[in-house]
Amino acid sequence: MPLPLDRPLLDDAAGKLIRPYTVSGGRTHPTAALDLLSLVLATGAAPGAQTGPEHLQALALCQGPLTVAELSAHLKLPVAVTKVLVSDLVDGGAITVRPPHHQDHPTDRSLLEAVLDGLRRRL
Length: 123
Prior knowledge:
Pfam families: DUF742 (PF05331). This protein is of the alpha+beta class and 123 residues long.
């Protein structure tokens, strides 16, 4: 019986059945310069012929701007794999990447410390 391709291949005990390096075709370095906070957005152009289901899922998620880190979390893939997928879509013209927006002033240290404290309490 064929497996449905519209949802991830999962095994209740093992999790995803497809290993991350398979998703990226064994590649570990993206062709585009990407940061965790780089914003990605779909252009509306059709993806190239070399796209897999993960590429299409990433493209669907990028209808509004997302950071690479957010996209990685939504895809439940390591950031390195997500960067390779995004760079494939950038190379094919289906996604644009914008560097993170840096303000003229640094982030308030007390805000960063409060976020770190909150994270520590949750973990």
